[in-house]
Amino acid sequence: MADLVVGKDKCGEQRLVSLPLSRIRVIMKSSPEVSSINQEALVLTAKATELFVQYLATYSYRHGSGKEKKALTYSDLSHTAEESETFQFLADILPKKILASKYLKMLKEKREDDEEEENDNNGDSDDDEAES
């Protein structure tokens, strides 16, 4: 069990996890299905979260461009979420960064496309009514 010890708490005692258990408890209790949380479940959830974050960071570093700079970047994480089937569920949480100007341009184009589509649909229904 000594190999699981990760850090030390405020009093200098060794801890099994690095993440703050009180924060994890708050997050877990925010679910309406959870009424009480066993201490062992809390510690296991914290440890599993640490291991997941470590795996995500390591995978992103190895497969990203940050390796050349010896740094892990946000773009490495977002690329991993987008490209890796394992981390696909994170794609909405870690979207690729784009400039605000590009985003506004994309929104404008989408609105124009929607308007054209709406006009085409309205034009078709008017023609159908005229033929009847």
From TrEMBL:
Keywords: Acetylation, Coiled coil, DNA-binding, Nucleotidyltransferase, Nucleus, Phosphoprotein, Transferase. Residues 18-79 form the Transcription factor CBF/NF-Y/archaeal histone domain. Pfam families: CBFD_NFYB_HMF. It is found in: Nucleus. One of its GO terms (molecular function) is DNA binding. InterPro entries: CBFA_NFYB_domain, Histone-fold, Transcr_DNA_Rep_Reg. It comes from the Eukaryota. GO terms for biological process: chromatin remodeling; DNA-templated DNA replication; nucleosome assembly; regulation of DNA replication. Residues 109-132 are annotated as: Disordered. One of its GO terms (cellular component) is nucleus. Residues 112-132 have a biased composition (Acidic residues). Heterodimer with POLE3; binds to DNA. Component of the CHRAC ISWI chromatin remodeling complex at least composed of SMARCA5/SNF2H, BAZ1A/ACF1, CHRAC1 and POLE3; the complex preferentially binds DNA through the CHRAC1-POLE3 heterodimer and possesses ATP-dependent nucleosome-remodeling activity. Within the complex, the heterodimer with POLE3 interacts with SMARCA5/SNF2H; the interaction is direct and enhances nucleosome sliding activity by the SMARCA5/SNF2H and BAZ1A/ACF1 interaction. Within the complex, the heterodimer with POLE3 interacts with BAZ1A/ACF1; the interactions are direct. Forms a complex with DNA polymerase epsilon subunit POLE3 and binds naked DNA, which is then incorporated into chromatin, aided by the nucleosome remodeling activity of ISWI/SNF2H and ACF1. Does not enhance nucleosome sliding activity of the ACF-5 ISWI chromatin remodeling complex. This is Chromatin accessibility complex protein 1. It comes from Equus caballus (Horse). The lineage of its organism: Eukaryota, Metazoa, Chordata, Craniata, Vertebrata.
